[in-house]
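I hope you will forgive my troubling you with a question about protein structure. The record follows directly beneath this note:
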Amino acid sequence: MRTRHGLLVLALILLIGGVSFATGGGEAAADESMEVVEIEVFQSKTTIAEQFEALAMEFEAANPDIKVTVETVGGSADWQTILKSRFTADEGPDIFNIEGPAQYDLWKSNIADLSGEAFLDGAVEAALAPLNIGGRQWGMPVNFEGYGYIYNKDIFADAGITDLPTNFSELADVAEQLDAAGYTAFATGYGTWWVIGLHLVNAAFAQQDDPQAFMEGLTAGTVTMAGNPIFQDLRGLIDLTVEYGEDNPLATDHNQQVQLLANGEVAMIQQGVWKETALYSANPDLNIGLLPIAISDDAKMNRVPLGVPWYFVVNSKSTPEEQDAAKAFLDFMFASETGKRYLVEEFGYIPAVKGVPSTGLGGVGKDILAFAGDDRTIPWVFGQWPDGFAQQDAFNNLQAYVGGQQSWQETLEALDEAWQDRSK
């Protein structure tokens, strides 16, 4: 039986093909007497903020009776807390993004049923599945993403590194070689909550023999992170990145990671395909690829995390007119030729839409497709974590470990306690 993650990998492989794009969405003449519906889109991808605004303008040109305001909150900001404050103030956006089933449980009283909407017909079935709950479809998957260690191929070559690391010991050897050649191996980015508290911790969850059973065991209290060998191994990787990393890992954020790698000041950063646009903008000649996040010397470490990072949902508390306008925007984004062109050419995405290939990918994206083609991927499971666990508990406790304020055992015990508290 295929797992959902296995179906995602298969779907991603099948997406690689050819398609042509028309400009689409011609301008419609505005009628001064028409009633204009105003909607707001809340999205958390700062890397596509300008491009998303441009997409909204294209939509408005084709739909002069709808005005779209885009609010982008993400990067180092805790967008989930900000979104909660918006709803608390009764100022919830008409379209917003969530990460998966756990956030559906959090927001389900504010999420409209999208079942039957035409734009869902083009979506990859395996990507739809996590938010197909109770026989109804609650969200539209936006894209596929993968992450790991983005590395500078030219620096590796200059340091004499010819064999890419496939496990922890080999990664440690590479770090030593880079250091001996006068290079800083890592820019950790541990000042950004989702770098250390979300993506890094996910690597330990996803490497479990059965991640779903492990998370259920944490909730039931039958297993612990403190007693788990893979979580014990995670310490070695963190120690390695700090030893061969930048001077102040707790202060370096995701934007600084990009600059340090683009400028040739470091050889590796823990990031994903979403950073390609920023990296190539900073240095068009950058020669980069992707390595796995290897926690141990187990052969299965030579895999990269692959998943659907976010879904767009519609606010069920918006007026019927606003909901209709929101659905029209999603239809434009995912079903029109203009929208599809933005997904691949402007956003640089691996879209979760059938028949739309990833033509705008660089070295990182191409490596992700290669890992997927070889069935060397692990899932993103953080969409099922208790609300607040990543951005608060994991972030704060791992920062405390890196800063020398608590031991690794104390860190894992604190995470176990936090998981229990948030699961009640």
Notes: Residues 16-27 have pLDDT under 50 and may be disordered. The CA atoms of residues 102 and 385 lie 6 Å apart. The longest helix spans residues 320-335. The chain is about 45% helix and 15% strand.
